[in-house]
Amino acid sequence: MCVSDEGIPFGLIHQKVWATSHKNHKKDRFLIPLKDKESYRWVESLKLSDDYLFLYERFVITMTDREGDIYDLLATERDWGSELLIRGHHNRRVKKNIEDKETSSLWQEIRSSSPGGDFTITLRRVSSHDDREATLTLRWKKLGSIPFL
Fold this sequence. Notes:
By secondary structure, the chain is an alpha+beta fold. It has two domains: 1-90, no CATH class; 92-149, no CATH class. The protein has three helices and nine strands, in the order E-E-H-E-H-E-E-E-H-E-E-E. It has helices at residues 40-56, 71-75, 106-112; strands at residues 2-3, 9-11, 60-64, 82-86, 93-95, 103-105, 117-123, 132-138, 144-145. Strand 1 and strand 2 form a beta hairpin. The longest helix is centred in the N-terminal third of the chain and has 17 residues, at 40-56. It starts with a strand and ends with a strand.
């Protein structure tokens, strides 16, 4: 989504809709080229966002859900002003900061960061369960990725 400096939404930079034709077997996932994988959509979106950044000299944040927590996306070269905001899925090893060589686990680093805000939401009734409230705490931290060997 593209927004102004004041937070006014302009629209989407890129959106891709697809239907899965088949499920890949986990044992075969390393044999399939990245461009042929469903997860390539994250890399493709990042590259298109970076094109927008280049054309309009803007800061771009590419946001993904847990499916976007893949090494191929983390390893994709980005231009200055291009950042990733990923809902973590894998408790991978990370650099404590971009320049540092000291590493830690993702979950440990996130737990040690200050909360950015709490949000209470209502989860609606599902079959035999009553409505209930859940409080979500948002935490984030800029970390460095470690090359996959």
